[in-house]
Amino acid sequence: MAEPIRVIERREETLEERRQRVLERLADAVVHEEQAAERLIQLVALAEDKGLLPMLTALLERGDRVLAHVVDLLARDEYTSALQNAIGLAQALGKFDPDVLAKLVDGVAGGLADAKEATAADGKPLGVFELLALLKDPNVSYAIRFLLRFLSGMGKALRSQGSPD
User: Fold this and answer.
1) Exposed e or buried b per residue across 43-53, where buried means at least 16 C-beta atoms within 10 angstroms of its C-beta
2) Under a CB-based contact definition with an 8 Å cutoff, are residues 37 and 30 in contact?
3) Measured between alpha carbons, how far is residue 35 from residues 30, 41, 43, 44, 46 in Å?
4) Can you tell me the distance from the alpha carbon of 147 to that of 131, in angstroms, rounded to the nearest whole number?
5) Residues 13-30 pLDDT 10s
6) Residue 85 and residue 74 in contact, taking contact as beta carbons nearer than 8 Å
7) What ranges in 14-127 are assigned the alpha helix state H?
């Protein structure tokens, strides 16, 4: 009759077997995510070309000291208020509808370009009759209507918060 097994001998994987297993797994991952792997290689190459890779490496090697320095800087009063303002601005931007905000930014950019062009071409002051004629322009009328509704909504929000007049 056979004797019972009391000790299980586990076979240790050799370094070469482990290397082969890891290389096969990496090769499978690269084949599966080919586009991402190519982009990663491009990113690393660009970082090296621009001198960013050595800087990033040094930053990571000295991470604790760099982080301590950043925390010391941010603890100063002038940076604390700036950081609070940045957080408040980020929160405010999060409340906006991205499509409306994009449309508004495009409108502002277009308006600035037109204003620059018109001002450069004609440096004389705006007369009363010229102003009345501009009010008939549908684009000007639309922008004024938008601005007045914006001011109305802003005033309503300020009043509901109990802001001083």
Assistant:
1) eeeeeeeeeee
2) yes
3) 8, 10, 12, 14, 16
4) 17
5) 899 999 999 999 999 999
6) no
7) 15-32, 34-49, 52-61, 63-74, 77-95, 98-121
Give me the sign of the Cα torsion angle 13, 14, 18, 20: negative
At residue 46's C-alpha, the angle toward residues 41 and 51, to 5°, is 130
> What is the C-alpha to C-alpha distance for residues 43 and 53, in angstroms, rounded to an integer?
10
The residues, any chain, with a CB within 8 Å of residue 157's CB and separated by 6 or more, are none
Distance between CA atoms of residues 22 and 15, nearest Å: 10
pTM over 0.85: no
Structure tokens at 82: 């700036």
Q: Strand, helix or coil at 33?
A: coil
* C-alpha dist (Å) from residue 107 to 78, 113, 147, 154: 34, 10, 12, 19
Tens digits of residue pLDDT in 53-62: 888 888 888 8
Nearest to 55 by CA among 70, 40, 66, 71: 66
